[in-house]
Amino acid sequence: NWLPIFSSINTLDFDVSNNQLSGTVPSFGGNIITYSDNFVANTISLDLSNNSFTGMAAHNVLPNATVASNPSISTLVLNVSSNSLTGAIPSAIFEPCPTSSYAVDLSNNALTGPLTPFHNMSISYSLEIYLSNNRIAGTVPSTLLNTVGTPTNIMALDLSYNQLTGTLSPAFFSTVLASTVALPIFKFDNNSLSGSIPNIILNSFARTTLSISNNRFSGAFHLANMTNPLVAFTASEFFLLADGNQLKSVNLTAPVLVANPMSGTFNFSRNALSSLVIGESVSQSITALDVSYN
Hints:
Elements: E1 11-15, E2 22-25, E3 43-47, E4 52-56, H1 64-68, E5 75-79, E6 86-88, E7 101-105, E8 110-112, E9 126-130, E10 137-138, E11 153-158, E12 163-166, H2 170-178, E13 185-187, E14 192-195, H3 200-203, E15 209-211, E16 216-222, E17 237-241, E18 246-252, E19 263-267, E20 275-278, H4 280-283, E21 286-290
Parallel strand pairs: 1-3, 2-4, 3-5, 5-7, 6-8, 7-9, 9-11, 10-12, 11-13, 12-14, 13-15, 14-16, 15-17, 16-18, 17-19, 18-20, 19-21
């Protein structure tokens, strides 16, 4: 156990980043938090980034029982980015259940795939997962973000700069639509994903920043090809970054947009476009459109 007992604090910020720590990331249960009647911590931040850790303990870094026994804990932040972690993504890190938000950053390591569903998240809270710049391979499971109980509010999921293949299933984005978060961020850029862009993505634009740049998506992108009307178009802006793919045509026509004030940014540069159609109603809502280098 690294730390003494804390019995009355509002915020615990434990920062050992940018050192030469190595070995296995230990559990921060036990002495980091010992429940007492006057324990009132709201936020716990554990920053172990930029060290030389090579693995994580089989148990949780912050055991679920520890969090559950301390109802005042509303926010957890775990940063183990820029280390030398190898092997599969440790599923135990997704088990803590704070009452408000949880962010975990494992980017810039050497973690490998395949991805497995994050089924251990049993209550509703805002979730951020950063896994960019690893060696995660295989496909993106359609059930990746499925939870037990109330759907999790996805704030951010970053899987950029990995080795993912296959398609993005419409079922995966059904979780996006179930989220109540206004503008979640999804990053799948710089992988080897292919196929067409699922139509259900178009239904969640108003609530989503979606980056799928530098993959192998192909075929036609048709804004009017929607599984349902764009009833969710109520937010102020949205972003679709699809540059560096193999799209052949883009058709931005969706009259339903007229009734909903919004603005959008599209990037279709560095594709293989031979056709571009923009409807009048959509043109009034576009903040930026890049179709260069086609």
